[in-house]
Amino acid sequence: MARARILVADDHEEIRNEIVQLLRRRFDVLDAVGDGPEFLEAVDRLKPDLCVLDISMPNMSGIEAAQRIKRSDSQMKIVFLTLHDDTDFRDAALATGEGYVTKARMGRELLPAIKLVLAGGWFDRIQDGKKHGRRVIKERTHTRN
């Protein structure tokens, strides 16, 4: 089976490099870019299977960039990787993408998120209502309207 082709987009070079190091043993990392317009150009040029996309980037947010890609009927999957551990950001991201991982949990959750999304699932950290806020993976089986 061919390795999945992944594009990384994050405005912090150190984070981009860390993501690439984390992914390159299991996936073909095609490129790592630093802003929304670079991301759009790289998607058009490289045709990745999945993108790991930061939400807060200069020149265009990751959510706006993802919306533009999805409007073009792209089959590319998107896992958002962000500092924002906030339900509003999560809801906005998952309205367009298939996964949501915070940078604080990148080492533990990014690879499982990518694998699940590539297999057709969704990755979303949610609170289960307990005091300690244990995090769980949630698979969604519904489609967007």
If you had to describe this structure to a student in words, what would you say it looks like?
- The protein has a single domain, classed as Response regulator (Rossmann fold, 3-Layer(aba) Sandwich), CATH 3.40.50.2300.
- β6 (123-127) and β7 (135-137) form a beta hairpin.
- With 145 residues, it is of the alpha/beta class.
- A seven-stranded mixed β-sheet has the order 2-1-3-4-5-6-7, with helices on both faces.
- It has five helices and seven strands, in the order βαβαβαβαβαββ.
- The radius of gyration is 14 Å and the shape is globular.
- α2 (36-46) packs parallel to α3 (62-71).
Q: Output the radius of gyration.
A: 14 Å
User: Ranges with pLDDT <50 over ≥5 residues?
Assistant: 127-145
The N- and C-terminal alpha carbons lie at a distance of: 32 Å
- According to CATH, the fold-level topology is Rossmann fold
The ordered H/E elements are EHEHEHEHEHEE
- Count of the domains: 1
Indicate the CATH class.
Alpha Beta
CATH homologous superfamily grouping: Response regulator
Strand order of the largest sheet: 2-1-3-4-5-6-7
**How many DSSP-defined strands?**
7
Range of helix content: 25-40%
Named at the architecture level, the CATH assignment is 3-Layer(aba) Sandwich
What fraction of the residues are assigned to beta strands by DSSP? Answer: 15-25%
Per the principal axes of the C-alpha atoms, what is the gross shape? Answer: globular
The assigned structural class equals alpha/beta
Largest sheet properties? 7 strands, mixed
**Overall average residue pLDDT:** 87
Total DSSP helices? 5
